[in-house]
Specification:
The chain has helices at residues 2-5, 10-23, 28-40, 44-57, 62-74, 78-90, 95-107, 113-124, 130-141, 145-158, 163-175, 179-192, 197-208, 211-220. The protein is mainly α and 221 residues long. The protein has a domain at 2-124: Tetratricopeptide repeat domain (Serine Threonine Protein Phosphatase 5, Tetratricopeptide repeat), CATH 1.25.40. It is globular. The model has no long low-confidence stretch (mean pLDDT 92).
Length: 221
């Protein structure tokens, strides 16, 4: 499931996590992955349903309780989300719990979101690339490209073989009109996955950019 999740193929990730639960529903991680995949596809109603079912099995799991808070935030129930997130962290501080907390605070426009993301990194350990990539994808989704770039670079320093990671690093470089860096990152994505059409198109755009377009991107983002 993670293989597909961290290459942006969330529908396939969802199927793999669901299959894992069919084999053994007493494992917590596939429940977490299933809810994350649903949220990535903006299927908030389904995520709400499945996180509720998961909590029936694991009523004190900090990751799942934090994901329920995140579902509340995606439904626009920000005060309830923050309260639920506060409670979740009393049950433990897993990386997923801190990531979900950070996203809840981002949605609430709370300045403490970066602290939560850094706590997620601290909890995960220095060799974990999935956590910084996950945080980078969150920042990218909310168009906070400078922070996304920072986390993608951290992830790339650990994991060099993920085309979806290099692709997003290239997109961020392109946002800030760093043409050479964008081309290098996008080329790397295509070396790993030559069939990745989105990277092909992004590479063509990066190569075609001129001084004026780069200046305007750097000025307006």
């Amino acid at each position: 499931g993670d293989k597909f999740y961290f290459t942006g193929r969330w529908d396939k990730a969802l199927r793999m996590y669901s299959r894992a639960l069919q084999v053994d529903s007493t494992q917590c991680y596939p429940w977490v992955g299933q809810v994350l995949a649903l949220l990535a596809m903006n299927q908030v109603k389904e995520a709400d349903l499945w996180v509720g079912r998961a909590i029936e099995f694991f009523p004190d799991d900090a990751s799942l309780l934090s994901l329920r808070a995140l579902v509340y935030a995606h439904k626009g129930m920000l005060n309830r989300a923050i309260g639920a997130s506060d409670y979740a962290l009393t049950r433990g501080g897993s990386p997923h719990a801190w990531i979900a907390r950070g996203e809840v605070l981002l949605l609430a426009k709370n300045k403490n979101a970066p602290f939560c993301f850094e706590k997620a990194l601290e909890t995960a350990g220095a060799e974990n690339w999935k956590v910084p990539m996950h945080i980078g994808l969150i920042y990218y989704r909310y168009r906070t490209y400078s922070s996304a770039l920072s986390y993608f670079r951290r992830a790339c320093a650990i994991e060099t073989g993920n085309f979806y990671l290099w692709y997003h690093l290239g997109l961020c470089f392109d946002r800030f009109a760093f043409k050479n860096e964008a081309i290098e990152a996008l080329n790397r994505a295509l070396e790993i996955n030559p069939d990745f059409r989105e990277a092909e198109r992004a590479l063509a755009r990066a190569k075609a950019s001129n001084f004026l377009t780069r200046f305007l991107r750097r000025l307006f983002g």
